[in-house]
User: Fold these one by one.
Assistant:
Number 1:
Amino acid sequence: MKRPDVVIVGAGSAGCVTARRCAELGLKILLLDRKPRDKVGEKVCGDEISKSHFEATGIDYPEGDEVSSIISGADVYPPSMKNELKVRGWTEFDGWTVNRLAFGQRLLSEAISAGAKFLPNTHVGSPMMIGDQVTGLEYKDLVSGEVTIVKCKVVVDASGFAAVIRNKLENPLVENEIDKRDIALCYREILSLKMPLAEQEVARVFLGGEIAPQGYAWIFPKGPQEVNAGVGITGGEGRGSPKVHFEKFKKKYPLLFGTKLIEGKGGAVPVRRPLKSLVGDGVAFVGDSALQVNPIHGGGIGAGMRAGIILGEVIRGAIVRRDHSATGLWSYNTRYFPDFGSRLASLEIFRRLLQAVSDDDMDFGFERRLLEAEDLMAANRGDGLSLSAAEKLRRVKRGAGRISLLRKLQKAAGLMKKMSKAYHNYPISPEKLEDWEKSVLGIIESATFE
C-alpha cells in the first residue's frame, strides 16, 4: 500500500476498531504494530468490559474463548474490608472479563476483513510534517531492518500510553506533558485459586491508602478458579512499587492465600480526563493515547472502542471534504466530548475525592452508607452525585459527627456537574479551545478536598 488514506499506529482495541470503521467506509488503511501478528491483543489490563460499550458501537459481544467470565456485580471494600458496598442488579454494569489475546485477535481480524492492511513487527519513528500538518510517518521493519516513509492524509495515534506520535508533536492543540499524578502505575497477576470462587460473576475492588496509595486494588474473576488481581497507584514521590503493595495485599486478603502464579506483569495507564483536543492538523488520537480511560479504575477498552467508531466516520468525512486540518477533523471532539467524554471528565473529580478522603473517614462513610450503590452508578453514567433534599437530610443524620466528610461529598457533586456542563459546551471550533480549557482547569484546581 504505497499511498494509504490513513495510517493507524497501534493495533489495540481502539486502533483496530478505528481501522475497521475507516475501511468499512471505503478508505485505504495501513495499520501498524510492534507486535507479531499472533501477539496482538496482549496487554496488562484488568480485562473487564461492560456490555453497554458493545450496544453503543454495534460491535459483536465477546463469545467462545474470548470470554473468561461473565460479570454482573461488584463488591467495593473500604480500608477496613468491612461493610463493603454490594453493587447488584444494575444492567449497565453487566459485562465480561475477556481473554485479552483472543478478543484482540478478533478485533484485528475484523479490521483486516474490512480491508485494512496490517503490518506487524514495525517500529514507528518520526511523523512527517509540513509546518504543523502531519503528512505521514517513518517506520522500520523489525525483522528486515528496512526503513519506510509513508505519506497519507491522516495519521491516527492509537499507540497506547506511549503515544509515540503525540509526544513528538509541537502544536498548541496537542498536549504532550501529562502530570505524573495523573498516571497510574499498575501491577497485576493472573492467579489460580486454591478453592473455586463463591460468586464467579462478582468483581471486587479495594480502596485505601494502606492497600494502594492514591489508587485501588482489584480482583476480577477469570473463571471458576482463576482471577485477574492487581494494584494500581498514581504517580508521585514516596508511594513505592505497585508490585510491593500487591504482595502485601496478597498476604492480607484470604481469597489470595496459597494462590498459584500463572502470569505477572506491570504497566502504566492515564487516569485523568481525555486530552483537551483529540485532533491536530492531519492527526488524531484514540484510546490510551487520547487518555480515553476511566479515571476511577483505569478501564479503557470500551471508551476506546466508542471513540474508534466516531473517529472512523469523522476521518471519512474530512477526506471527502479534502480538509485534513484540525478544523476538518474537529467533529471528532464535538461528537465524543459532550457524550461519553463528559462522563470520563466528571469521574476525574470523583477520583480526586477518593484520593483525598482518609482511610478512617472512608471506613466511617461505608459503615454509615454515606455513599451508596446508586451514587457509584450515577457517577459512572456521568450523572454526578445528585441528591434530593430529603436524601441529603437522611445522610446528614447518618453522618452526624463527620460533617466535613459530607461537605466533601457535596462539593464533589457540584464540581462533577460543572465538569459535565463544561464538556457538554465543548467549543465548536479550535479558536475557542483556549478559553474552554481555562474553564476546565479552573474546575480541576477547585477539586481539592483536604
Note: The chain has three domains: 6-47+100-177+274-329, 67-97+180-270, 344-446.
Number 2:
Amino acid sequence: MMDISARLAALMSVLGHSFEDPGLLLEALTHSSVTKGRGKLKGAGRDYDRLEFLGDRVLGLVISEELYHRFETAEAGQLSRRYNAQVRKETLAEIAREIGLNDYIQLAGDLREAGGLDNPSLLEDCVEAIIAALYLDGGMPAARQFIEKNWWPRFETMGAAHKDPKSALQEWAAKRGLKPPVYTVVAEEGPDHARIFTIEASVKGCESRIASAPSKRAAEQMAAEQILKDQKNGND
C-alpha cells in the first residue's frame, strides 16, 4: 500500500495541480472521525469542515459566472435551475466517484466498514474541500481549472434547465388554485453518516406519495415526482 506522500502525489496528478502545501490537500481529504480529540490544528490534525465551507462558495461563484456568460438569453429562473443542477449533492458525489476520490479520503475504520465512503453527503463535502484547497494553494486559476474539467461537460446535458420535481409540483398546484405541497418526515433511520429519510408528499385532491433517500431533499423530489406522474397518467 502506498504511503501518504505517494497517495497525495497520485491524487495531485488526477487533480492536475502540484500542491506547494500538500498539507492543504491532506486536510481536504480528512473526515472529522479521524481528528476527534486532536483539536483544530493545521494539516494532518484538522478535518475538512472549514475547507468545505470555502469550497462551496468558490464553486458557486465559478458556476454562476459561467452560466451568466454561457446562456445570455436565459431568464434568472432558468439560470437558477441550471445552477441547482450543477451544485446539488448528487452531482458532486458523482464527480467524486468519477475521479476516484473515494480511494483517498481519510475516514475512521468503523465508518469505512459501514459504507461511509458511499455516503453522498460525505463525498459532496470532500469535493468542496478539494476545491478550496486548490483555491488556497494555486488561486482561482487552479480551482477554476478543476471545475471546468469536471463541470463544463455537464452544462449541455438534457434537462439541465428543466424544473425539478418539487418546483414543478408547486407550479402545478398553483395553476389549479391549490395550496403548496406539504412534505412530512415519516421516518429517519440509520447511523449519522448514512441516514435514510422517508418523506411523504401531499397535495389536496391527490393521493399522497412516500419516498426514501439519503437526504430529505432527494426524498422530497422523488415523492413529488411520483405525484406528478400520477397526474400525468390520470386526472391531470
Note: The chain has ten helices and three strands.
